[in-house]
Amino acid sequence: MAITAETVIQKTAKPEEKKEERTIVIEAPKFEIAAIRIRGLAPYVQHKFSAKARAQMIEKQRAGDQAKKGRKRAPKNFEQTYKDAMHVSREGWHGIPAPAFRNACISACRIVGFKMTHAKLSVFIEADGFDADDGTPLVKINKGKPRVHESSVRNESGVADIRWRPMWEEWEAIVRVRYDADQFSATDVYNLIARAGMQVGVGEGRPDSSNSNGQGWGMFEVIPGAH
Questions:
Q1: Can you spell out the DSSP letters for 28-60?
Q2: Where do the domains of the chain lie, and which CATH numbers do they carry?
Q3: What is the pLDDT of residues 56-96, one digit of tens each?
């Protein structure tokens, strides 16, 4: 039989590959909560964006160009700015923003090689209450009292300024971490909080500050045997 072009094509053509069917099984989320008691290794300094500052910003933006015309600078009430810089719950106690601990845990994942994108979906901080002014979720400061810390800073415009901010020289808290048990074990969470405290920190002047190398403030440790 003579071999034609059509015959060659039929012999060399590959049979269609069968598509493999895969079954995807998604398990229900398994979350657990670890209550971890921490103690400050360094002072904790807080600087809340106050309601007054927000109101002034809104007023200035509404006024537009007119805001710069004949505007008088009011005397600075340092005592009030000190109070406004605190996070106070609806029940009246002082607290640390819960997102500060969550962000510290996520940042600490870089040290141990765990993907930060996965940590964002796996680690959360349970709030003890909420800020009476802006609703920020808070972790209660169980021990320690604030005092005035006066420091010289430079605003974003480069102008030098004096600020009064609350500083807790000694402080303790119980951080309740809600975590994905398929991603982390309880030991992992304790160690992650420990790294967050000793290498990242919370609040102003922390080692992992986005604006500077920090002042060594906001560092903490896990209290052994107090989980």
A1: PP-EEEEEEEEEESS-EE-----HHHHHHHHHH
A2: 31-57+76-222 (3.30.70)
A3: 555 566 666 555 655 666 778 888 889 999 999 999 999 99
